[in-house]
Amino acid sequence: MLILTVMIFIPSESFASVPMTLPQYIREILLNNHTLRAGMKNVEANYYSVLASVGYQRPSTSGTFTGSYVTKQTAGSSSQENVFAGNIGLRLTQRIDISGSYKLDEQQNILGYEVTRANFDNSINTLIAAAEEAWWGAVLARENMKLQHEILLQRSENHRVTVEKYNQELVPKLDIVRSEAQVVAAETLEKTAETAYLNLIAELSLMAGGLDVEPVDEELKVPEFDVVLNFEDALQYRPDVRAARLTLERARLVKKLTAKGLSPTLDFAFQITPWSDPESYATPNNQQAGGSLVFSVPITDGKTTKYKTFNADRLIQAAESSLSALREQTRRDITVAMNNWRNASAAEHDKQRQVERAEEELRITELMYAEGMGAQIDLINAQTAYQSVRTEYLEAVRNMYVALVAMKKAVGDYSPNENGTWSEALSRYGKGNDIVGELGMKNLRTGPKDSPKKARPALKLQTNQKAKPAATPKTSQDIKPEVKPDTSQKESVKK
Prior knowledge:
single chain; two-stranded parallel ribbon; elongated; alpha+beta; Outer membrane efflux proteins (OEP)
């Protein structure tokens, strides 16, 4: 009882965050993200829905039992007789497909499943891209938090020196007021940086299914863009483009199927009566069998087929326009990501040189101020410039990571391919059947995908090397799927 009382009244400590590397974090999302799990189950439900939707094409059987108990009045007499009549029947029915609509209906249902699966792949592509962007945002936010803490310590030390000089009557009271204001401003910036970091940690936790995670504290390195891309490959592997392509294919099949609304039908039925009492109570009679063929030719359906065909035709036009829009969007996304990479890479190179100059300027200014040879306003300006350029440098590095994530998302590198194999980006994070669920490797059109169709060109984005400012990716018109690694400048830049 004492132990239970202590456990109740002493608040438990919050669970500590789990340090993870990026591959471990991405795998955690693939396994435990609730939105991803819901989408996966919807795909599985659609798979079984397709299997059920074509059930009417198969023969159906039914068994019947009919019984009645009546009181019969005997003619010319006042007596009554109780009579029982009943039968047992078995019936087999099958609609014979003489118009070819069965195959079309099956194909359009299968394509509906493939569209659902492609949309799920697109949700994976979007989710993992958002997760990696938030990851690098958290990493850079933590670096910024460390930077603001260093600046606060620096300004606190400068304030201490100013107070000592004031006590020695070497500086006016105004210098103390200014240095104290700088300390307060640095404290505010530190709190702001800490809040931004904690918010990103909360975002990481949400995408990991509620697990408290944080990026492992390791040396931050500048990424290098060492991959060239092909626009046509991007159109082939991007999941939302694949979904639009399948939607267009399905719309064309639906139009063909709709046009068969007035097609003739042929129904076959076979029935047997194993038992009947009296023997002629049912048709066919006791121990007899019978069959029938019913041929029906629709004459008119109130123009239903006509207008449904018009509807299907407009859906085809809409699907064609959607596919064209996604093609242009893919080209735009790749171009924007490349432009952002060029800009961030150039900014990182420029800001690095500015950091070196600002650091040297601040060191000299602090030395002169400590020796009484410099004005305090010069020290404050040097501190402000140093803080600003270091913050801008971190932002440039973050933009480089964001541009790489946008590029991989634009080519669908975070999602499975159409044949069910995982793309290179997810392969690095540890793929497996436990991730894709019970139907992850099933394809209704080709059966289980034991052999992939075409190997996808690998996208290897090395993020452990110093980026070269002069190296810029090619445009989408002249790029090819080949990797050209750079072995120069292997040293990393520690923040």
